[in-house]
Amino acid sequence: MEPEEILSEAEKIGTDESRTLTTEKVTCGDQNCECMNGGQKYVPCVYEYIYEDGTLSSEYLGK
Question: CA 19 → CA 32, 38, 47, distances in Å?
């Protein structure tokens, strides 16, 4: 997935020139849960995406 696609699909909660805070839904980790078996992801997590020198990196900031 291209950096632009990742950032466009995430729900932005803050941004500046090179950093974007987003919330994303992720799987819960329980192997018996529907979200781990193709169902809808539902656990909200906050990530910071940093775009510098043509490279996109992300940092998990918590639930």
Answer: 35, 30, 10
